[in-house]
Structures are given as structure tokens and as C-alpha cells.
Amino acid sequence: MSRLLAAVLTMAAAAALAVGAALGVVALLDATPDQPNDPLITYENADGER
After folding, report:
1. 50 vs 35 pLDDT, higher one
2. Which uninterrupted H or E stretch holds 24?
3. Residue closest to 11 by CA, chosen among 23, 26, 19, 25
4. Measured CA angle at 20 (ends 15, 21), to 5 deg
5. Using alpha carbons only, how large is the chain's radius of gyration in Å?
């Protein structure tokens, strides 16, 4: 009986770890990095403005 209990507890711990890791990866992929809204290239128009 103790082997069966150990196997069930090991499977439950492994499943919880897998779910936690999956949620962590999704959270990391969903995070957007802070990027400035500055254009890399600017073109001047006829008025000399950017």
C-alpha cells in the first residue's frame, strides 16, 4: 500500500510541477518588453520638420 501511495503522490507532484512550469512559460512569453516609441529612421518633409 505504501508503494502505491508513494507512486500516486509522485505523480501528483510531477503533474503540479508540469502545470506550474507551463504557466510560468506562458507568463514569460506573454510579457511584452518595454520598448521606446522612438522611430529608428526619421524623414524630413518639405517644411524642414520631422
Report:
1. 35
2. helix 2-30
3. 19
4. 100
5. 26
- The letter for the amino acid at 45 is N
Give the model's pLDDT for residue 33: 73
Backbone angles phi, psi at 39, to 5 degrees: -70, 145
Per residue in 3-47, pLDDT (tens digit) is 999 999 999 999 999 999 999 999 988 877 777 778 788 787 766
Residue 31 CA, distance from chain mean position: 5
50, 42 Cβ separation under 8 angstroms: yes
For residue 39, how far is the Cα from the chain centroid?
A: 26
